[in-house]
Structures are given as structure tokens and as C-alpha cells.
Amino acid sequence: QVQLVESGGGLVQPGGSLRLSCAVSGGIRSINAMDWYRQVPGKQRELVASMPNDGRTTYADSVKGRFTISRDNAKNMVYLQMSSLKPEDTAVYYCYADQVLLYGSIWAKNYWGQGTQVTVSS
Predict the structure, then answer these.
(1) Are strands 91-102 and 28-39 parallel, antiparallel or unpaired?
(2) 36 and 20 in contact (C-beta within 8 Å)?
(3) No. of helices (H) and no. of strands (E), the chain
(4) Per DSSP, which regions of 8-90 are E strands?
(5) CA-CA-CA-CA torsion sign (30, 33, 39, 42)
(6) Mind listing the pLDDT tens digit for each residue in 53-88?
(7) Mean pLDDT across the chain, nearest whole number?
């Protein structure tokens, strides 16, 4: 069974930093892209950062220059380093694994983590 477990969320003051981590487990053979999304109540979930397995990165305009996504393919981990945090970054952050292929399977599926709360407030 595939599991995505996020960690690293919490309360931080404006201008501060946090590092989110996401561990993917469960007989993983390969993962296409690993992404971070965020959602605030009453709004759609939005893509924050994406990193396919070719190493390219994509960021939402609102976080460019402040957030950095990285991944460790050997450990099936993805990270989001967040700096210069603003109150508007407050949200639940979700890890997303795109096209996960398991050993012994021919079908790839997508998976979401359970989310981790990030609150930016003084």
C-alpha cells in the first residue's frame, strides 16, 4: 500500500523559514513527478511547485524566488524549502506523487499525502 507522509509544518513568523518533507513508501518502482500543492478553506487546491524526474522545476508565481523544491529519488522523498514566508502562504500543504509505478504492476497511479498545516503569523 502506497503511503505519502508529510512533515515539517507548523507556526512561523512572517519572514521565517520552514522545510517540508514528504516520504513515499510502498514498493515503489518509479515516480514521474513529485509536487507540492496547498489549499486554504474555501479555495481550490493550487500547485505550488513541481519536479518531474528529469530534474526540471516549476513554481507558482507567488512563490518564485522564495520556495525551492528538491527530491531524493533513491529515498523517494520530496522537500519544499520555504523562505521569506508571508501570511498569505498560510495553508494546508499537500504532497502529490504523479504516475507512481509499483514493482509487479503495469499500471501507474497518482497519490496524495494527508497534508500538513503551515501557519505564518506574528
Answers:
(1) antiparallel
(2) yes
(3) 0, 11
(4) 10-12, 18-25, 28-39, 46-52, 58-59, 67-72, 77-82
(5) negative
(6) 888 999 999 999 999 999 999 999 999 999 999 999
(7) 96
C-alpha cell at 109: 497511479
Task: Name the amino acid, one letter, at 94.
Answer: Y
Check if the beta carbon of residue 91 is closer than 8 Å to that of residue 38: yes
> HSE of 10 in the Cβ direction (CA atoms, 13 Å)?
10
Phi and psi at residue 110, to the nearest 5°: -105, 150
CB 37 within 8 A of CB 67: no
User: How many other CB atoms are found less than 10 A from the CB of residue 70?
Assistant: 15
Length of the chain, in residues: 122
Q: Are 81 and 68 in contact (CB under 8 A)?
A: yes
